[in-house]
Amino acid sequence: MSFTARAIVEVVGSPQEHITTVLKSVQDHLKEEKELKIISVDVSEVEKMPEGELFSGFLDIELKVENLSRLSQFCVDYMPASLEIVDIEKINLSAGELNNIYNDFLSKLHHYNLALFNAINQVKK
Question: What is the pTM of this model?
Fold first, then answer.
């Protein structure tokens, strides 16, 4: 069951040149992804955010994936700000696929939790 999805991956930070570099890097990594067929990638201009000193840019991506597990892995890896499945209305999935999706998601959450815990402990020192 392959299907098409659209995703927006946003990059926020500073300085402006860094955001441009990261957007290009993400675009390059997408081209190397196995089991993802990138149909199109539109890269926005990097703009200063209204408040503060941060800059923002995004990639508007259209991709073809073979299954929901692979789409979920894409979401865990790239953390898109939005996602839309565009060419099917209903998805059937096995318990094994659902287990894989949740386990990947939980693994990433635990990774971020540990990183946050370590950063808080460094600040406290």
Answer: 0.80
